[in-house]
Structures are given as structure tokens and as C-alpha cells.
Design brief:
The structure is a single chain. This protein is α+β, with helices and mostly antiparallel strands. The chain folds into three domains: about 140 residues, Gyrase A, domain 2; about 100 residues, Alpha-Beta Plaits (2-Layer Sandwich); about 80 residues, Beta Barrel (Elongation Factor Tu (Ef-tu), domain 3). Helices cover about 20% and strands about 30% of the residues. The protein is built from eight helices and 20 strands. The strands form four sheets. Strands 11-12-13-10-4-14 form a six-stranded mixed sheet, sandwiched between helices. A six-stranded antiparallel barrel has the order 15-18-17-16-19-20. Helix 2 crosses helix 7. It is globular and about 60 Å long. It holds the Pfam family GCV_T_C. It is an enzyme of class 2 (transferase). GO terms for molecular function: aminomethyltransferase activity; transaminase activity. It comes from Streptomyces marincola.
Length: about 375
């Protein structure tokens, strides 16, 4: 049996017309780059970049107990989220392992939009539906419904310091009043969209949830509006180096079912003080205690002193060559001009400035400096 052909987004014809290098990513045909990924990366840091993110998974949770249900199903507290705001959270299994990291938007009192990573969307959908059975606050199943809305949305992101100016030319929405991790319904170039001030690049920017039929007109309108500001189309390659510089974890690299939020230094997303029980509570409480006593491993940043680039899976070693950790993500940093990586290491080697740390790159122990994350923080 042959593998099914990757799915295409509503912008597939646009990517091909622009000469994009396409790749199969999580079952989708996605643009890896349009030309130079370094130039695309730099454009986002200095001007703006345009991304097709329509492979992400949108799940709508509705019902009178939608908030209480998400409090039970996820590790965060969503029931108190204000309408129009968004929250980064996670869905874990009963053992505390991360099934996926998510952004949840509250669209109305009884309506939430859960955005999952593309490859994990079926897992998240199945887990949410399985957890509808309770226990609800009043006993029994929750008065809520989980709907698969992946086919109802295309998702376009405009990211970078010029993004408010560019988007502002196409909408009368109050972008200046739109806070980080908030969203509002509006029109962009005459097309209805949910305008969210979120992103995965470390820069200011917006993500636009629209109907698939509106994706091409919106893309072209944004391209034209940003032409004088240096807006360029951007692929997945520069998206990865941007998120790495910003110290943002990637599922399958820094996050997995063998990792708890506390292992990843993201224990703050787990809200033990919310009412009722939630899936994974006991295991996560134990993980929190272990982390407070001494974390079995710590996620750190590494910067290379040479030119060789550490990659995911490369061992981190001490001065004697003894393995002390593992690289989870690595790439050349266009902004810093040197190789960077994130790695899980033994706590004794986790402090910034720790001496004698190296990465085993094909048998050569390349010296690296331990640094605090993120590698890059934008100017406010």
C-alpha cells in the first residue's frame, strides 16, 4: 500500500506560482522556503514575513459547560478566560506526558477554539471526545461538544515589526488595542477573519483565521500592502529557526509523551488551583515535587563556539566525554551568527556559564556555552 498523497492547503497554487520548495510535513504539502531561508528569517526580524499555517488543527468546543470541560481535559484554567483572550496550554495523558501543546481562544461564553499542532490534531480530537464523559461538576457527562473544524479554516500569519502597519492598511479593527494573546472578529481586505495577536517567531504579529475560499485574496492583499515595507513569503525552514532563537519548544523535539510540562520548564501552565479534577493531576503533582527537589534534566540553551551545527539527537558531553544530555533542536542562528541549540542536560550542567560542556558532532566534541533561554528577545 502506498502512502496517501499529502493534503494541500487553500494556498497551494500560490506557493507553486511563487516557486516554493514544497515538503511533506505532518501529512501536508507545505512550503519549506521560497528562496533563501536566511533572507526570510531576517525579513521577519527586521520587517515582516507572510506564512501559510493552514496545516494547523482547529477544534471548536461549545456548550454550557465548555469551560468546565476544558478545565478537566487540559492542564490550564480555561473556564476563567475572558472572551476575546487566548491562552497557551497543554493536553496531557494520565501519566503526565504531553500529548500536545495548544493555544485556546475564547470566542464566546460557551465557545472555545482549540488550535493543535498538525500531526497531533487527531490525537487531541480523540482525547477531547473521550474526556467528554466526565466527571462533570454535577456528575455525569459534560454539557459540551467537540467539533472538528479543520476544513472550516485557513490560517495566515503576518509576523515582524512591520506587521501592525501592514495589517492596519487592510482593516479597521483596533489593532493598537489588541493585546498579545488576544483575538477579535473583524474584516481584512473585506474578508471576515478572526484576528489574533499570536505567533511562533518571537516577534510581534498576527494570525488570521479565515474561510479557505478567502485565503488567496487575503494573501494577495497582504502581499501588496506589505510590498513597500519588505514583506516576504516565508516557509517552514525559517519558522523553525525563528522559534528556536525565541526559545519556543517544538512538539516532537522538546515536548513529547515522555516529557511532562515540568521537565520542559513549563510547569507554570499547569494550574493545580482550578476547581475539580483534571486528567493527569496526580502524576503532574508528583512531577512538580520531583522538579522542586531536583529536576532529572533541565532544558537549556547552547551556543556554539565554532561553525559546526548541533542537531536533534546529538549527545551533550562533559569535559571527560561522559554523556550529560541530548540536543533536542539545533540550527545556525542568522541573528546571532553562530550555531544554537536547545538540549536537556543533567542539572549539574544547567547553569548559564557552566564550563566544559560540548556537543558530540559526529565524533568531534565541539565546545558550547550554556546560556539562558531565549537566545533572542525582541525590543518592545
Amino acid at each position: 500500500m502506498t502512502d496517501p498523497a499529502p493534503r494541500t492547503t487553500a494556498l497551494d497554487a500560490v506557493h507553486r506560482a511563487l516557486g516554493a520548495t514544497l515538503t511533506d510535513f505532518a501529512g501536508w504539502s507545505m512550503p519549506l522556503r521560497y528562496g533563501s531561508e536566511r533572507a526570510e528569517h531576517t525579513a521577519v526580524r527586521e520587517a515582516a514575513g507572510l506564512f501559510d499555517l493552514s496545516h494547523m488543527g482547529e477544534l471548536t468546543v461549545t456548550g454550557a459547560q465548555a469551560g468546565a470541560f476544558l478545565d478537566h481535559a487540559l492542564v490550564g484554567r480555561l473556564g476563567t478566560l475572558a472572551v476575546g483572550r487566548a491562552r497557551y496550554t497543554m493536553i496531557c495523558d494520565a501519566a503526565g506526558g504531553i500529548l500536545d501543546d495548544l493555544i485556546v481562544y475564547r470566542l464566546a461564553d460557551d465557545t472555545f477554539l482549540v488550535v493543535a499542532n498538525a500531526a497531533n490534531t487527531p490525537t487531541v480530537l480523540d482525547a477531547l471526545r473521550a474526556r467528554l464523559g466526565g466527571p462533570a461538576p454535577a456528575g455525569g457527562a459534560f454539557d459540551a461538544e467537540v467539533r472538528d473544524d479543520r476544513d472550516a479554516y485557513a490560517l495566515i500569519a503576518v509576523q515582524g515589526p512591520a506587521s501592525p502597519t501592514i495589517l492596519g492598511r487592510l482593516t479597521d479593527a483596533d489593532l493598537a488595542g489588541l493585546k498579545y494573546y488576544a483575538g477579535l472578529p473583524g474584516t481584512v481586505a473585506g474578508r471576515p477573519a478572526l484576528i489574533a495577536r499570536t505567533g511562533y517567531t518571537g516577534e510581534d504579529g498576527f494570525e488570521l483565521f479565515c474561510a479557505p475560499a478567502d485565503a488567496e485574496p487575503l494573501w494577495h492583499a497582504l502581499t501588496e500592502a506589505g510590498r513597500e515595507d519588505g514583506l516576504v513569503p516565508c516557509g517552514l525552514a525559517c519558522r523553525d529557526t525563528l522559534r528556536l532563537e525565541a526559545g519556543m519548544p517544538l512538539y516532537g523535539n522538546e515536548l513529547s509523551t515522555s516529557t511532562t510540562p515540568f521537565d520542559a520548564g513549563l510547569g507554570r501552565v499547569v494550574k493545580f488551583d482550578k476547581p475539580g479534577d483534571f486528567v493527569g493531576r496526580d502524576a503532574l503533582a508528583a512531577a512538580a515535587e520531583r522538579a522542586e527537589a531536583e529536576a532529572p534534566r533541565v532544558l537549556v540553551g547552547l551556543t556554539g563556539r565554532g561553525r559546526r551545527v548541533p542537531r536533534a539527537g546529538y549527545p551533550v558531553v562533559d569535559a571527560s566525554g561522559t554523556p550529560i544530555g541530548l540536543v533536542t533542536s539545533g540550527a545556525p542562528s542568522p541573528t546571532l551568527g553562530r550555531p544554537i541549540a536547545m538540549a536537556y542536560v543533567d542539572p549539574a550542567f544547567a547553569a548559564p556559564g557552566t564550563e566544559g560542556v560540548a556537543v558530540d558532532i559526529r565524533g568531534a566534541h565541539e565546545p558550547h556555552d550554556v546560556v539562558a533561554l531565549p537566545f533572542y528577545r525582541r525590543q518592545k
